[in-house]
Design brief:
Layout (H helix, E strand, L loop, with lengths): L1 H10 L6 H12 L8 H10 L4 H25 L1 H11 L6 H11 L1 H9 L4 H10 L4 H26 L2 H31 L1
Helix pairs in contact: 2-3, 2-4, 3-4, 3-9, 4-5, 4-8, 4-9, 5-8, 6-7, 6-8, 7-8, 7-9, 9-10
């Protein structure tokens, strides 16, 4: 079933509605949907590398707005909807662990979840559930999601379709390396300034 869903999403790259499908996919994935928008972003950007940065922007905006919906679900509708979404991803036992992460790291937790393959939707819902500062949540989401999608779009814009195989093969390693560099950068900024 997941493979059929994956193929259905990819077919939107061959339609004139690809950018709208990308926005909708990014929006839904940030709050409840299982398929990440990266696959459609890559397909659209490889098809027309000159529009890769435009697609990254569409994906970023959709994802951040979807993250706001996830926040709303956790804040106001946790018992009705949020618990079901968290259970679908098998993360019920991790919610209190995520609360500890939020209490300790605040925006860092959102930023890392927004950039890495960790289910971002669980963190958006948990952010609302634990009433994390909404504007801190939005800024951290904007930075991390934009970084993720603009790096993909930028690589395809610069290198064209050749880079797709490299991104597909090493995405998780690249995501972790970027997060490490991001954390080191913030630590350096904190201590140098």
């Amino acid at each position: 079933m997941l493979r059929r869903l994956y193929d259905w999403i990819l077919h939107w790259a061959d339609t004139p509605f690809g950018a709208w499908a990308l926005f909708l996919l990014a929006f839904c994935e940030s709050s409840f949907f299982p398929i990440p928008p990266d696959i459609l972003l890559i397909a659209l950007a490889v098809a027309v590398p000159a529009k890769a940065l435009k697609y990254a922007l569409v994906c970023s905006v959709g994802s951040v707005l979807g993250g706001m919906l996830g926040y709303l679900i956790g804040w106001q509708f946790m018992a009705v909807i949020g618990e079901r979404i968290v259970a679908f991803y098998g993360m019920e036992g991790k919610v209190h662990y995520i609360e500890g992460i939020y209490q300790h790291y605040d925006a860092w937790a959102v930023g890392i979840a927004g950039f890495t393959p960790i289910p971002y939707k669980v963190f958006t819902i948990a952010a609302g559930m634990f009433k994390i500062n909404f504007w801190v949540f939005v800024v951290a989401s904007l930075v991390s999601r934009s970084a993720r999608f603009f790096i993909l779009g930028g690589l395809i814009y610069a290198f064209g379709p050749r880079i797709q195989r490299f991104i597909d093969r090493y995405f998780n390693i690249l995501a972790v390396a970027f997060c490490v560099l991001l954390v080191v950068g913030f630590i350096l900024i904190k201590y140098l300034f």
